[in-house]
Design goal:
The structure is a homodimer of 179-residue chains.
Chain A lengths: L31 H12 L5 H8 L3 H13 L3 E8 L8 E9 L4 H10 L6 E7 L5 E7 L2 H13 L4 E14 L7
Antiparallel strand pairs in A: 2-4, 2-5, 3-4
Chain A binds a DNA duplex (17 and 17 nucleotides) through helix 3.
DNA sequence: AGTGAAAAGCGCGCTTC
DNA sequence: GAAGCGCGCTTTTCACT
């Protein structure tokens, strides 16, 4: 049993049977229905509006307005297919810890804007600590990965050090773990 | 100009103007239309079926069958909303490098299966190298993050070392970079 | 496997409470 | 801010190529 998250732990039994506006104050601009919509759409981004409406107990038209509002406010940034990269011929993934040695802001900016466009790049984290960046990439073969690192990272004048860790397994948490 | 990716670099000028079946042998079970569907759905997971059909030059009914097949074969695992965690009250993210000291397989398995369910956990990477796991988490406040690490990682008998790096910025690569 | 037409279901604006 | 109605379009099935 988790005693830590401490978020929204008001202990109130959730009972949304009666009509009328929700009495909950809403920590930010989101009420409980909004949160539920976000949770449902995180689990299944193609869920139909009807189904969403029924699952949250509101009318379809209201649901549509809610979801649109969530998108407009940037709470939901977009929807993406979750693809098995192995099936696309990229069975390898790696995380590459990168240390930057550049002193000019321009050179750092150049690095930061070129990397996301490199082939196989999935995402780039700018982090605190001993390393400056953590790069998540996919590759077709070990050789392709090695070439990627040599040609795009080691060869980059801004990069001082690059350490590659192969990803054996990537477990994505279920969305309801966030609430 | 990238001279590296080396994938599908057959040097053949791509010319899919003529009708009839594609002459391309297809590296795995996916032809060019499948790849395009995957690419489009990665960019916009809620794209309508007829829009997909038109964009790929096939009939809506065919498109539906293609996409279903992609899902059934596991090429597309699912669709998910991309959510701004800050808007949900979790403005902090971190990557935590974890070293495991457990000697029994059971204890490692226990760790691996408990972590994805912990509050705020986004994903868990099992990696090669000096560290065993890399954990991507979100948190409401620095204190909540600290508590998470202390209660769930430092306190875990399987964990020997946990090093937290705050994520300043997370740049997700555009999907077309993978082709 | 790909297509076209027809039926079922959904998106989404408008009006009312 | 939420619900109900209704039109138009999309999705989805099915017989056919």
């Amino acid at each position: 049993m988790d005693s830590v998250d401490g978020l929204y732990s008001d202990g109130m039994p959730k009972d949304r049977r009666s009509p009328g506006p929700a009495p909950r104050p809403a920590p930010d601009g989101l009420d409980e229905v909004d949160r539920e919509l976000v949770r449902l759409l995180t689990a299944d981004g193609r869920m139909a509006n009807n189904a969403l409406a029924e699952a949250t107990g509101i009318a379809p038209s209201t649901c549509l307005a809610r979801v649109r509002s969530l998108r407009e406010r940037g709470v939901i940034r977009g929807f993406h297919a979750d693809v098995d990269l192995g099936a696309l011929g990229q069975p390898l993934q790696a995380l590459i810890a990168i240390r930057i040695g550049a002193h000019s802001r321009d050179e750092i900016d150049r690095f930061r804007s070129k990397v996301p466009g490199l082939p196989g790049v999935l995402s780039l984290f700018h982090v605190s600590g001993a390393n400056d960046y953590l790069l998540h990439v996919s590759a077709a073969t070990p050789d392709a990965l090695r070439e990627f690192v040599l040609d795009h990272l080691t060869a980059d004048p801004a990069v001082v050090h690059a350490e590659t860790s192969l990803i054996f397994e990537h477990i994505r948490a279920t969305p309801d773990a966030r609430n």
